[in-house]
Write a structure and sequence with these properties.
By secondary structure, the protein is an alpha/beta fold. Helices cover 38% and strands 19% of the residues. An eight-stranded parallel sheet has the order 7-6-5-4-3-2-1-8. Helix 3 links the parallel strand 2 and strand 3. The longest helix has 17 residues. It binds pyridoxal-5'-phosphate (PLP). The site of pyridoxal-5'-phosphate has 14 residues, from strand 8 and helix 9.
Length: 234
């Protein structure tokens, strides 16, 4: 099932790419939260090397157990007291939405002598229930502050668009995020590049790619529905 799902997702990514003016194929991040290592290995054997997790403990456990050439993406809300466990294990932290969190990442990165790549999380539809910053001047000023911190590189922006049955409804949010990344680029801030746009999930990744996504985060579309209940089996 996973093998077939990945084939399908890759096909749709290629199709979506044909409709864009962007030259590089986006990277597919397989969102493996709640899923066992055996399923991750199935995806790994199909050539997937980027996996997304949203819980620190789960990410660490899988990091220890699975092949070391996997690039782990922290895509969930990150508490400051847990930063120390992951700074040397993740390829990219997608969910930085405050100076205090960035300061903690910087501090722990210095301790472990690593440079940590991060994305700034934006709340594109200003949803109450979501984390992320507004697309405004204040956020640009915050990016300038974060950029001054040692051992951190800001690589781009990330968003979780609203849940919708109709992906077209999210097109405007994706295009707003791209525009905002251009606005930030135009500020020419040291240690900031806006190469990465992490946007698009199972329900809307094709539209996100058409609007310039460089990373798409697909969970359900690869691994099937998530079971948050207790060990109900497969
Ligand atoms: C769970 C999650 C995803 C994947 O969602 P699907 O709809 O299952 O593809 C993507 N991004 C974030 C931040 C998530 O938490």
């Amino acid at each position: 099932m996973i093998q077939e799902n990945i084939r399908l997702v890759r096909e749709k990514i290629s199709e979506a790419c044909k409709k864009t003016a962007f030259s590089t194929q986006p990277t597919l991040i397989a969102v493996s939260k709640t899923k066992p290592s055996s399923m991750i290995m199935e995806a790994y054997n199909e050539g997937i090397r980027d996996f997304g997790e949203n819980k620190v403990q789960e990410l660490i456990d899988k990091y220890e157990e699975l092949p070391k050439d996997i690039r782990w993406h922290m895509i969930g809300h990150l508490q400051r007291n847990k930063v120390k466990y992951i700074v040397d294990k993740v390829a990219l932290i997608h969910s930085v939405d405050s100076l205090r969190l960035a300061e903690e990442i910087s501090k722990e990165a210095i301790k472990k002598s690593v440079i940590v790549s991060i994305l700034i999380e934006l709340n594109v539809a200003a949803e109450e229930s979501k984390f992320g910053l507004g697309l405004n001047r204040e956020t640009i000023e915050l990016v300038k502050e974060i950029a001054k911190l040692p051992n951190i590189l800001i690589k781009g922006l990330m968003t979780v668009a609203p849940y919708t049955e109709n992906a077209e409804e999210n097109r405007i949010y994706f295009s707003n995020l791209l525009q905002f990344s251009v606005d930030i680029s135009n500020e020419n801030i040291d240690n900031v590049c806006m190469d990465v746009l992490s946007m698009g999930m199972t329900g809307d990744y094709e539209v996100a790619i058409e609007e310039g996504a460089t990373y798409v985060r697909v969970g359900t579309g690869i691994f099937g529905d998530r079971d948050y209940g207790q060990n109900k089996g497969e």
